[in-house]
Amino acid sequence: MATSVRSFLRTRGLSALWLLLLLAPTALASYSIGVGRADSTGPTAEIVFSFPPQVLRKLKTQFGDMYTARNVMISSTHTHSAPGGFMLDVLFDLTTFGFVRESFDAIVNGITKSIQRAHNAVVPGRIFITHGEVLDANINRSPQAYLNNPKSERDKYEYDVDKTLTQMQFIGADDKPLGAINWFAVHPTSMNNTNHLVSSDNVGYASILFEKMMNNNAIVGKGQFVAAFASTNLGDVSPNTRGPKCEFSGQNCSDQYTCPGNKEMCFASGPGKDMFESTSIIAHKIYEESVRLWKSDNTVEVIGPVRAVHQYVNMPEQSAEFYNETTRIFEEVHGCVPAMGYSFAAGTTDGPGSFAFEQGTTTSNPFWNAVRNFLAAPTENDIRCQSPKPILLATGRMKLPYQWQPKIVSTQVAVIGNVVIAGVPGEFTTMSGRRLREAIKKVMNDVSVDETSVIVAGLCNTYSDYVTTPEEYQIQRYEGASTIYGPHTLTIYLKQYQELVQAAVQNKPVPPGPLAPELLHSNLISLVPPVLYDTPRWGRNFGDVIQQPPKVASPGDTVTAIFVAGHPRNNLMTDGTFLTVERLEDDEVWVPVATDADWETKFQWRRTSMILGSSQVTITWKIPQGVKPGEYRIRHNGYYRYVLGGVYPYYGVTNHFQMKVPALSIRQRYYG
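^ Neutral ceramidase, sequence as received from the core. Prediction below:
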């Protein structure tokens, strides 16, 4: 009995971290810099798409107290197309049928290993910062909410999303390039929610392109230079630049982003003809600007001490002062117990939700309230605090089987000379990020006459959904409905990060704050079935080739091979690969030219018999321009689980095929 395709593999996850340790701010080589990366891809089949304490615990066994919550900032690059089940909080793991230990361990081990590699690669070096602009790569997916911000504030900015790309460059004392971090506000949702590929999306592809350029076209993830394209204030920012349209008719969506008759979904797409082309176009736009910045002379050297502060904060217990533009008076405002609004279930134009929920909903429904109350009822104070959000899920009141969303979050800043990196525990919208940058600059301007660069580093250490401005919150788009601590979440963060920056520049210690509960010790639930056994079916062996590639191929062709396979979850192939495309060298040695981390390759696993435990994999390689002529083959590596116990390796290779490269190749579009 054949089953449908459950998982594909395109790009293996890579963790990239930088360690910055101050030596002497007046010296030519001011800093000790180490860069590192490691594979953090979880299980790639039959998995539907808060680990800092575990990372720190592993680091402590090797480095003692050198790395702590104060000086380790873990910022997610972010993708919507990766194996899930590692977030621990119930709400975030619902779509993966609970906690997935394999995903969790892969990420924890990958992050830890990348830090270890960076530590072991530390050399004297210098840091530079520069800024550029990327156009036609992002749009605001909640413009109605953005327009609810004060006009006087909106008039300060040319666009309703940030177009700035900020790049920090890390150069060795011997002028050897070490790495770069690029921050640009765009959601990695070019690969939409119909996708079944494991992919690092547009920013991940940009990273691959940059590293291939700097590492002389080395195998992905194997070169010395490390390039990251990191998250910033991307909360309301979409890469789907054609904007939202009705699914079949192509008509414009309503103001609530619905379509007539509710028989078709409203979603955004573009700029390409499909999600693959769109991903490539956005990736190349970001990559090309990052390369221009890297090669330009318009950089500023970062000079000065490195200081980092960190504090855990119980958000529902926080208060702050807020200036009400309507009443023109200051008010004391408070954080709320976490809750999700109705518009959360509506999804976004990047990925529409379910049932009949609509964005912009500010009234409740008796039926859904009854469903909500069956799980956990909000208190009257919760309802008042979260207003005008109608509460769909009172996540802060839900205790079974364990915590649904965090109440305690991690807040952190790192000050490197006149650069401030604010590590925020969520997805800030465009205007929220702008307000945070301005608030931090105000503190820095009081202590320094030099220009300050403020970077909002998103999704750091804790994930606590979205952060809108109080004005955007009133509109209750998806982002407002997912701002879980109420309308003044941002107000509280502005106060908190100003205090952290002040403590950093004054070199004053801050109390650690209340520790978050150790959820890993809870009775974590997982409904993902284990792999019981694999069989190759009668007359076959694991690794046998069912379909051979053609005897001759050329750049632009797509080559396909099908193998008898075991289940990919038998071995995650960490720092390895499920496939290689190999070329025969003059010395009769086969060398890899592409792996499962390359954009041009796809790895598709398919269960062909549930009863027999039989599987096959389809490997495709879209041959890029610039490949060398010669003799090629495709290799598949895997593991099978024997019915009587044990997991064993196997491999398979195709017949050889000739690569014919035309003498005069036609220049093709870069997003092929």
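The first helix runs from residue 52 to 63.
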